[in-house]
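Run log // design_07
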């Protein structure tokens, strides 16, 4: 029997088709720099070096999907925000771009073909994809509208204005939604799918009411728009989302990357097969967990969600920069083993699920 490729495992999950194991990946984040001698600054500014780091990670661990890393300020920089680039840490804004609300009227939607590091990112995607597209899928993440709004205005100020200046917050969200839509269009044109990262939309930071009033309508708008272009949108929100889980599902999103603080069991129960689910393995385990702790986390995820298929085993968020090769390797090795064993047990226990498979 011909061995399946990682790409085939991912497609089986996306289409909810029969497979012999659970597809497995991680959000690699800046950890890929550790696979080379390049600094984080180099992989955030040089597409060739970044591609080499990503491909070194792929060659070492063979994830079924290679999820290309960029910092969370790509869009903010393209709009006009100046960034600092430390050699061995992620970039960060020098200051919020919108120091005064009146400046919003002067902002323009950036051009994905030429503004900021957008050209670097598209070059990176093409370099990586050209090397692995036959054997693995290529994923990515980019800022959602709320993330971008916080980068432009500042977290504390934006949260304060959600109470004192709600009309301004909506105007800012309309602008950032158009930025995301324009970037998403360029991704689709280049053969990739939009995948929003909304670290700042977690209930670890905001209230459910803020999500419902200021974020949910724009997520719903983007979901509908990208669906109309036959490019279903993925969504990742860092941290704890249990109080807004049903709101997230009501946006129509079809693919959710779930961080470890959130309940995988609750998402499975509430989604009732409506979404593809990825993630939920605690990222701390990649830096400091024991082998038993990693195995318990993997087994728990698979046993909770895999029976309905459409699940991708993954870290809940980006693995830490101080992750160890041994722990990352054990995640993949044991993830494959556990995912295969679960499918075999499921075949014996519920053969009717596989009767129509070819």
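design_07 sequence
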């Amino acid at each position: 029997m011909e061995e399946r490729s990682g790409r085939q495992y991912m497609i089986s999950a996306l289409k909810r088709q029969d497979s012999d194991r659970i597809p497995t990946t991680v959000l690699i984040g800046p950890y890929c720099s550790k696979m080379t001698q390049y600094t984080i600054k180099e992989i955030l500014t040089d597409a060739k070096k970044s591609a080499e780091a990503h491909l070194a990670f792929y060659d070492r661990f063979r994830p079924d999907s290679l999820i290309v890393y960029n910092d969370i300020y790509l869009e903010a920089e393209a709009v006009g925000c100046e960034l600092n680039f430390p050699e061995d840490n992620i970039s960060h804004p020098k200051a919020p771009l919108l120091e005064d609300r009146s400046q919003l009227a002067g902002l323009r939607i950036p051009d994905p073909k030429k503004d900021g590091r957008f050209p670097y990112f598209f070059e990176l995607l093409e370099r990586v994809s050209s090397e692995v597209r036959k054997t693995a899928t290529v994923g990515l993440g980019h800022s959602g509208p709320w993330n971008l709004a916080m980068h432009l205005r500042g977290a504390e100020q934006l949260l304060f204005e959600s109470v004192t200046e709600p009309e301004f917050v909506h105007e800012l969200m309309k602008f950032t939604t158009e930025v995301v839509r324009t970037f998403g269009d360029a991704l689709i044109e280049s053969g990739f799918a939009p995948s929003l990262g909304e670290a700042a939309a977690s209930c670890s930071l905001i209230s459910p009411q803020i999500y419902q009033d200021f974020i949910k309508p724009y997520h719903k708008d983007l979901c509908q728009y990208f669906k109309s272009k036959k490019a279903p949108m993925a969504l990742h929100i860092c941290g704890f989302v249990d109080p807004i889980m049903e709101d997230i599902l009501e946006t129509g999103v079809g693919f959710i990357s779930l961080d470890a603080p959130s309940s995988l069991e609750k998402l499975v129960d509430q989604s009732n097969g409506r979404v593809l689910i990825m993630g939920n393995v605690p990222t701390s385990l990649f830096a400091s967990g024991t082998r038993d702790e990693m195995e318990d986390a993997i087994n728990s995820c698979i046993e909770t969600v895999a029976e309905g298929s459409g699940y991708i085993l993954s870290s809940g968020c980006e693995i830490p920069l101080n992750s160890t090769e041994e722990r990352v390797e054990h995640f993949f090795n044991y993830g494959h083993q556990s995912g295969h064993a679960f499918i075999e047990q499921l075949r014996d226990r519920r053969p009717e699920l596989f009767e129509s498979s070819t």
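The first strand starts at residue 65 and ends at 68.
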